[in-house]
Amino acid sequence: MRWFDSDFDYVQELLDSWNQKRKTIRTAYFIMAALLIIAGILTAVFPVSIFAVVQYMAAAAVIVVGIYHIITFASMTSFFRDYMLVISGILNILLGIMLFVMPVELTVAVITFILAILLIFNGAQKLAFASRLRYFRIPHSGTLTFSGVLNIILAVVFLLLPFVSALALNYILAAYLLLTGAALAAEAAGMRKI
């Protein structure tokens, strides 16, 4: 652990790191958002016949998001590291693996609760990080706050509808993919040079 050094400019370190990696991160967010939105649309349009294919696509997308969260945590400056990213990344990876290996019957019963827990962690992490950015007067944290609130609202919806049919699960999964993709696209659009 690195101790706080009052002579070191932690905010400038974060700004320099952000400005160097912003375009790469923004491009990755747009690509992930597009994949999630396409998977969500396919899930909504072909709820029964394409469920297995979309289940694997969604699993791959969620695993990629989980890996990206862990990489983001590892690349953050030490003073701004958020351990919720590691938890969120691990949960995303576990959810993706479960989507790969679980049969449809078990998926229907379990996936709603897992998605709700995942969304709560993601929403809390985004809200906490946006709050930290506002504390240090770093601008443009509104889309991050919006994304966190959106994740928590969707988690509440998932918790209120724990037992649904396989068809309804497709639409819940489609909503999750579409909203997560939209949130990533909003975050990417809000990424500016600081």
TrEMBL record:
<feature type="transmembrane region" description="Helical">
    <location>
        <begin position="52"/>
        <end position="71"/>
    </location>
</feature>
<keyword id="KW-1133">Transmembrane helix</keyword>
<protein>
    <submittedName>
        <fullName>DUF308 domain-containing protein</fullName>
    </submittedName>
</protein>
<dbReference type="Pfam" id="PF03729">
    <property type="entry name" value="DUF308"/>
</dbReference>
<dbReference type="GO" id="GO:0005886">
    <property type="term" value="C:plasma membrane"/>
</dbReference>
<dbReference type="InterPro" id="IPR005325">
    <property type="entry name" value="DUF308_memb"/>
</dbReference>
<dbReference type="InterPro" id="IPR052712">
    <property type="entry name" value="Acid_resist_chaperone_HdeD"/>
</dbReference>
<keyword id="KW-0472">Membrane</keyword>
<feature type="transmembrane region" description="Helical">
    <location>
        <begin position="108"/>
        <end position="129"/>
    </location>
</feature>
<feature type="transmembrane region" description="Helical">
    <location>
        <begin position="83"/>
        <end position="102"/>
    </location>
</feature>
<feature type="transmembrane region" description="Helical">
    <location>
        <begin position="141"/>
        <end position="161"/>
    </location>
</feature>
<feature type="transmembrane region" description="Helical">
    <location>
        <begin position="27"/>
        <end position="46"/>
    </location>
</feature>
<feature type="transmembrane region" description="Helical">
    <location>
        <begin position="167"/>
        <end position="186"/>
    </location>
</feature>
<keyword id="KW-0812">Transmembrane</keyword>
